[in-house]
Amino acid sequence: MKRSTYFFLILILGSLTALGPFTIDMYLPGFRAIAEDLHTDVSSVGLTLSSYFIGISAGQLLYGPLLDKYGRKKPLYLGLLLYILASIGCVVTQNIDHFIVLRFFQAIGSCAATVASMAMVRDLFPVSENAKVFSLLMLVVGASPMIAPTVGGYVTSSVGWHAVFIILTVMGILMLLATIFWLPNSFKPDTSLSLKPGPIIRNFWKVAMEPQFYTYTLTGAIAFSALFAYVSASPKVFMDVYHVNDKTYGWIFAALSVGFIGSSQVNTLLLRKFTSVQILPVALAVQSVVGLFFVLGAMNGWLGLWATLVLLFVLLCCLGFVNPNTAALALAPFERNAGSASSLLGALQMGVGALASVFVSLDETNSALPLALVMTAAAVIALGVLLVCRRAIGRVKPAEAA
């Protein structure tokens, strides 16, 4: 593959993968403005984020069989169209309950982009390069939390939060056009696959019972739920607990995202000397130890704004190592069922993340402790799952040249 073609594919796939995170991050600085405009509170606005995560989790399972039966592009067209319509609905809504429902359907649409892009990595690139490609996708995806909340903060303060969803609508249209005109058909549809519930469930069950898949999928989903908790709780922690304004919050969110994106790129360098199997437990162990310090500090009132920022930065760095390696290892055993595997992986990741998001959104305490507890529990449980479940794996199919 030519270097220019390689770069262009990474850019498009990364942009599709980033659509969901951008939709999550860009409206976060507007939580307070949305609450005032829709005559509700910030905790209720937080449920629009939880409904988005639930929608992504449900939508992942919907698109997996469609991507395998009809190819990658047609289901992607459908999802992006739904995303555009739901985004327009968010622009005009005047009711928090309607907003929660619209965010659910916006998520159903956006997750088509996520599932399709992950499956296309498995289609278009050799399995030995998958971990590196996923890390490169993180470079594009990482621009989302760096740019989105900062732009969202300025847009909200200048012209109002509705403009954020106008921008997201335009992004959806651009992604649809890029998919139609520039993304190659990477997979020959398997018309023999049935879309009846029975065969779909059996296919998912077959994928789920692969020891390498469930080991690294569960590990990654549980560990990555820390990010969902952070995204959901960060507006309250920074704006209510530490009293920063919406613009400053956007800059803080962007700065912390450097940890996630930077470590995902360091991961590509480490893969030259180490395997994903070697890197993963070290990252989870560090995440667990740092999380325990976070909990102790939050419980005893030792943490000011700067200490909280440092701890969160390190925790996000750890997640930058965990995510690409667990994704690559989980999908490595599959070729024919890559669409179903990637959708099931995404569904579990988003489902666990949604639970973490709901938990921190419903909390009423004016403290960083709930966030610290969820992020630490995610790391410790994920490490335990990895150590226990990997015993069932025979020979690990490599996610990189190792």
UniProtKB/TrEMBL annotation:
Specify the Major facilitator superfamily (MFS) profile domain's residue ranges.
Answer: 6-394
GO biological process per UniProt: xenobiotic detoxification by transmembrane export across the plasma membrane
User: Molecular function terms in GO for this entry?
Assistant: sodium:proton antiporter activity; xenobiotic transmembrane transporter activity
InterPro entries with a match to the protein in the record: Efflux_drug-R_Bcr/CmlA, MFS, MFS_dom, MFS_trans_sf
Predominant location of this chain?
membrane
Membrane-crossing segments per the record? 7-24, 44-63, 75-94, 100-121, 133-155, 161-183, 213-231, 251-270, 277-296, 302-322, 343-362, 368-389
List, alphabetically, the PROSITE patterns matched. MFS (PS50850)
The UniProt entry's GO CC annotations, sorted and at most eight, read: plasma membrane
> One Pfam family name from the record?
MFS_1
Q: Where in the cell is it found?
A: Cell membrane
Sorted alphabetically, the keyword list is: Cell membrane, Membrane, Transmembrane, Transmembrane helix, Transport
Quick check: keyword Signal in the entry? no
Q: How does it sit in the membrane?
A: Multi-pass membrane protein
Gene3D superfamilies, per database record: Multidrug resistance protein D (1.20.1720.10)
Q: Which family does it belong to?
A: Belongs to the major facilitator superfamily. Bcr/CmlA family.
**Matching NCBIfam families:** efflux_Bcr_CflA
User: What protein is this chain from?
Assistant: Bcr/CflA family efflux MFS transporter
